[in-house]
Write a structure and sequence with these properties.
- By secondary structure, the protein is an alpha+beta fold.
- The protein has a domain of about 110 residues: Roll (SH3 type barrels).
- Helices cover about 25% and strands about 20% of the residues.
- The protein has five helices and five strands.
- The chain has a five-stranded antiparallel β-sheet, covered by helices on one side.
- A hairpin with a 7-residue loop joins strand 1 and strand 2.
- Belongs to the bacterial ribosomal protein bL19 family.
- Pfam families: Ribosomal_L19.
Length: about 200
Amino acid sequence: MRSIARITDVFRAGPSRGFATSAPASSTPYPFSSRAVFPASTAPTPIPANLLSPKNGFSVVEQQNAALREQMDPAGLLKTLFSRRSKQRLRTGSVVSVLSYTNTAKTGVSPFSGVLMRVRRRGVDTAFTLRNIVQKTGVEMNFKVLSPMIKEIKVVRRAEGRQGGIRDLRRARTNYLRDRPQVMAQIAGALKQAQQARKA
């Protein structure tokens, strides 16, 4: 009976008195309750003007990607070599050489050269695929453009025009190179001829 009486007393007094703990003193008193606490207000960070009035679909995600590009891509590779509309962009069929670190300590470097098969454009997560023939076996490697494990990305030969050994393959994804080794051999032959011409 005593427990029932205590419960009824709690409900009569109200939940704020029966269950709430004593609150610390607040610098700004609340006129309707002495237990309400207001934390000290801090100055909010200003909102960028381009987010207040977005233009051409510019959103918070684009704002964040722009900040990450400025931080992680000082060379501007995403705006030149791996851009979708830049005149300097790499086209499929180009020969690219990549120097990547072999460990996190960045003490060793491993080179890999191949034909550009495709570019996956996803902002700061942009990646590309290279294909080469090593000991009569096709080898493909994927690289992240902004990966800290990449030391250098070098363009050996650009694919230009619609004729010649190293030409623009005019496809976003050239997966058909896996079934056409003669195209890879043609690109390798044209690259050797170009290198011999430079030496001469």
